[in-house]
Specification:
alpha/beta, Rossmann fold, GMP Synthetase, Chain A, domain 3, 3 domains, 13-stranded mixed β-sheet, seven-stranded mixed β-sheet, 16 helices
Length: about 550
């Protein structure tokens, strides 16, 4: 027997229709590439998204054709989020921090038909357009009078001229909710980048679950600043959840430095922000140098890589900001877990609460997870046993685009590549990436744990732990450290700092001071590149 409920497909166009109807006057504020502040409302987003839809139809793009973006977080990018997917085409957000050769390869693999880009990425477009065989249209996100002459890019036109001449009336088409809506390529796999292809259904369910109180707890009372880029797994789905809840949106544009982010938070009365640890490190450094405080910020979600305990402590103790430690990946849309406390934890001491907050959190509804040993058998949820982390759910990948790399699933579960523990309350903690965990004398050492101790030292700006070959112990950890400006710490002082904070055999054998640690396109430390930089390094005890 089937239920007798109306059957309405879950489509991304419904989000902006809802936002226009119920939150039409809620603001969307953007710092533009031009440097000024632009502000309008969800009603304006809806109107201009319909114009984008009409402009795409006039191009006679086929259903499912890919439309690429190379853009910062801003209002025009948001219009493309809805205008492209709403018409049944596929939004393909490209990461501008990748090498131009890699961008061209990805655009060709995706068979992008249109490229929409911010003016600051014009040099990239100049470098790659002759190598992008499928792209027929180039749209620069600016006013008509701002398009530079003699770019050498055929058919280049301004976004405002392209969509601005179109009517603002449009009837969003109805189609199968399992149709592709957007795609993101991940470089966190072996070989060439592979694409996760999201559906309308998976996107709506992810946005709804992410907005729930035990996840990111989003509402019409929030003013949200997504510092996480819109080209990084669709800004963790936050633009969709914002439209679903009517939250005010504030976009930082290209100004991602600590000073600019802090000033935008204060000027727009942001109470909720989201970003990777490296962004918050810059902002906290700016605040500490000027003895600054927040007036409205109450919580921030931190993901992308493990959040150092010192950062959680600084946000909580110095600035009164709750940190929501979160975890996910491109193949998961990306949200998997968020660290929120349960009722029984509220009476705990601050120290005991901190032990929980350091974990990546509980799986949100829609995400099932387990840990397995080398034999593939399930391990207990006791907070001690650690193994390979596997997940499954309605917004988790089943295959990569074009079947690249074969099926990634193991008996219906997606192997994340992370090593983790899960405690009896369901709180998961990443102990390492499987490729980064260090095996020393038959025992495993978590590089994340080693890094967290170093990051707690007042003179350390950034730290990365890697394993080095050892004739007796197989591998031993070393820690690469970037000092804070104007601060100093010696090798001996930093190694002594580990005493009493970890087991003696887990203390790194050496400290290597470096000017910088290589970061990937999403702000994660690139340990493969760090290993290349230190390929000639020899352990003092080896």
């Amino acid at each position: 027997m089937l239920g007798l409920m109306q059957n309405h497909p879950l489509l991304i166009s419904s989000l902006i229709e809802f936002a226009e109807k119920h939150h039409g006057d809620a603001e969307v504020v953007s710092r533009r590439v031009e440097g000024d502040i632009h502000r309008y409302t969800y009603k304006d987003v809806a109107t201009r998204s319909r114009q984008v839809a009409n402009a795409l139809d006039r191009m006679q793009l086929a259903f499912g054709d890919r439309v690429a973006t190379l853009a910062w977080n801003g209002y025009r990018h948001l219009e493309l989020y809805f205008g492209v997917s709403g018409t049944g085409r596929v939004l393909h957000t490209l990461n501008p921090r990748l090498h131009p050769e890699q961008i061209a390869w990805i655009a060709n693999h995706a068979e992008d038909q249109v490229m929409c880009f911010d003016m600051s990425f014009l040099p990239i477009i100049k470098a790659v357009h002759s190598k992008c065989s499928t792209i027929k249209h180039y749209i620069v996100l600016c006013d008509a009078d701002k398009v530079p002459a003699d770019t050498g890019i055929p058919g280049l036109q301004s976004y405002e001229a392209w969509m601005g001449a179109q009517p603002s009336t449009y009837t969003w088409p109805i189609f199968d909710e399992n149709s592709a809506s957007s795609m993101c390529y991940t470089s966190g796999t072996t070989g060439n980048p592979k694409a996760a292809l999201y559906s309308h259904r998976s996107t709506i369910l992810h946005a709804m679950a992410g907005a729930m109180p035990d996840a990111l707890s989003m509402s019409a009372r929030d003013c949200l600043l997504p510092v996480v880029p819109m080209f990084h797994v669709n800004a963790w789905g936050l633009p969709y959840s914002a439209a679903m809840t009517g939250a005010k949106l504030v976009f930082p544009g290209p100004a991602m430095d600590g000073k600019s982010i802090f000033e935008l938070i204060e000027a727009e009365k942001v109470n909720f922000a989201a970003g990777v640890p490296t962004v918050w490190q810059m902002m906290i450094a700016h605040m500490q140098s000027g003895n600054l405080k927040f007036s409205t910020l109450k919580r921030t979600v931190i993901g992308g890589s493990a959040c150092p305990p010192a950062m959680i402590t600084a946000f909580n103790d110095l600035y009164g900001v709750e940190v929501l430690h979160a975890w996910g990946m491109t193949e998961m849309s990306p949200l998997g877990t968020v660290c929120t406390l349960k009722n029984k934890h509220l009476a705990l001491s601050d120290a005991d609460k901190m032990k929980i907050r350091l974990k990546q959190g509980r799986g949100i509804f829609g995400v099932d997870m387990k840990i397995v040993g080398d034999d593939g058998k399930d391990l207990p949820w006791d907070g001690k046993a650690y193994g390979d982390l596997l997940v499954k759910g309605p917004w988790i990948i089943s295959d990569y685009f074009k079947g690249e790399g074969g099926s990634p699933l193991v008996d219906g579960w997606f192997p994340t590549g992370d090593v983790a523990t899960i405690d009896a309350d369901g709180y998961m903690q990443i102990t390492d990436r499987s490729k980064d965990v260090i095996k020393s004398g038959g025992e495993w050492i978590s590089s994340i744990d080693v890094e967290n101790v170093a990051m707690a030292h007042p003179s350390v700006a950034m730290a990365a732990c890697i394993g080095m070959k050892h004739p007796k112990w197989d591998e031993r950890p070393i820690i690469a450290v970037v000092k804070k400006p104007g601060m100093d710490v010696s090798r001996e002082e930093l190694l002594a700092f580990y005493e009493g904070k970890t087991a003696k055999w887990q203390i790194p054998d050496d400290v290597v001071f470096v000017d910088s640690i290589p970061l990937g396109g999403t702000g994660k430390m690139m340990k493969t590149r760090l290993r290349e930089v230190l390929k000639d390094y020899k352990l003092p005890s080896a």
